[in-house]
Amino acid sequence: MDIFEACVGSYKDAKRALDLGAHRIELCDNLIEGGTTPSYGTISMTCKNVDLPIMVIIRPRGGDFLYTKEEIEIMKIDIKMCKELGVYGIVIGILDRNNNIDKVRLKELIEEAKPLNITFHMAFDEIEDKSRALKELIDLKVHRVLTKGGHENAFKGKKVIKSLIKEGGGKIVILPGGGVTRDNYKELKEYTGAVEFHGTKIVGEL
Question: How many CB atoms lie within 10 A of CB 62?
Fold first, then answer.
């Protein structure tokens, strides 16, 4: 079965996505910034009233994915909050100064999050050597990678996405996002073999 993950920017949109047939929610604030961590109240209400797996983005600000020590501590506190509220998983991404995965700090966040489900978000698209990065994420037991294949949208990056799915060998889910809708996802599915799809319009207009 194909899995539709609806990316939403509010509790109201999460409820709407449920009604439209979403299978999972990525809950964010500030979608115009690419998503930042939503409020305690938003997470709490969504977990209580939206009967779907809720993935919460852990991102303290917009901009790049190079974080200070203090920002890492903020992320850890937010992860603890999410665990207490009963979320299904978290969506994280952290890079070093060379736009490679910051494995040491990412491992710290993953340890803090256990046993939650983990998605590495579109920070992945900033990485040049995606094959190496994918192996690193598999080694860190990350469950899923959200990606546009390093391009403007998932359709322009479909060759990369197809290659990543093959390289992943079923050890990690490649989740195409970026321009993916309920109306066009089948084209991407047929070309790449993806079975999970992400977007703000993956279940229609919210």
Answer: 11
Distance from C-alpha of 204 to C-alpha of 20, rounded to nearest angstrom? 7
- Residues 47, 64: Cα–Cα separation, whole Å: 28
Three-state SS string over 7-30 comes to: EECCHHHHHHHHHHCCCEEEECEC
Q: For the whole prediction, is pTM greater than 0.85?
A: yes
- DSSP assignment of 162-189: HHHHHHHTTSSEEEEBSS-BTTTHHHHH
Query: What pLDDT, in 10s, does the model give residues 3-52?
Result: 999 999 999 999 999 999 999 999 999 999 999 999 999 999 999 999 99
Extended beta strands in the chain, E state:
3-8, 24-27, 54-57, 89-92, 117-120, 144-147, 173-176, 196-199
DSSP annotation of 205? -
- Which residues, 6+ apart, have CB-to-CB distance to 198 below 8 Å? 5, 7, 26, 146, 175, 176, 177, 180
Calpha distance 200→75 (Å, rounded): 24
Q: Which residue ranges in the chain fall short of pLDDT 70?
A: none
Please, what are the domains in the chain? 3-199 (3.20.20.380)
Helix, strand, or coil here: 81?
Answer: helix
